[in-house]
Amino acid sequence: MTRARRGLMLSVLLFSCSGGTGPTSGILNAKLSSLRADDGAVLFTITGGPVESVEAVSGIVHSAQIDANTLRVVITGNLSAGAIARVRIADLTQDSHYSAAVNQVAARATYVQRDPGQYSITLAP
After folding, report:
1. Nearest to 72 by CA among 50, 36, 110, 45
2. pLDDT tens across 73-85, in order?
């Protein structure tokens, strides 16, 4: 095989490999619907795929990996309705596979448990 032919084949291979796009990581906003102005802690579970990281919009976040596709998250602080966290996933095209469920909610000053069924949390880009 001639040097020119090898160079042409290498160029074709490189061009064909570089044209494709792979997964693009991105952020899902975790939005809490809250009924009370004095919510101080929420425990929720994210399922549907791997999570790279979770960052609280305000307050403090702690998380525990339950399995490869399940993450349990606690956020404490002055919580209110709206975005409470940014969830980074590896492939934003898979965002519809992810969901979140509220497990527990507590009042800020008294730590009184609230009915988690009165809250919902959504994940959206």
Report:
1. 45
2. 999 999 988 999 9
3-state secondary structure labels for all residues of the chain: CCHHHHHHHHHHHHHHHHCCCCCCCEEEEEEEECCCCCEEEEEEEEECCCCCEEEECCCEEEEEEEECCEEEEEEECCCCCEEEEEEEECCHHHHHHCEEEEEEEEECCCCCEECHHHCEEEEEC
Q: Which residues pair with 107 in a beta bridge?
A: 39
pTM: 0.81
- Is the CB of residue 125 less than 8 Å from the CB of residue 91? no
CB count within 10 Å of CB 77 equals 17
pLDDT digits (tens, 9 = 90+) for 33-48: 988 999 999 999 999 9
Q: CB-based burial of residue 2 (10 Å sphere; 0-12 exposed, 13-18 middle, 19+ buried)? A: exposed
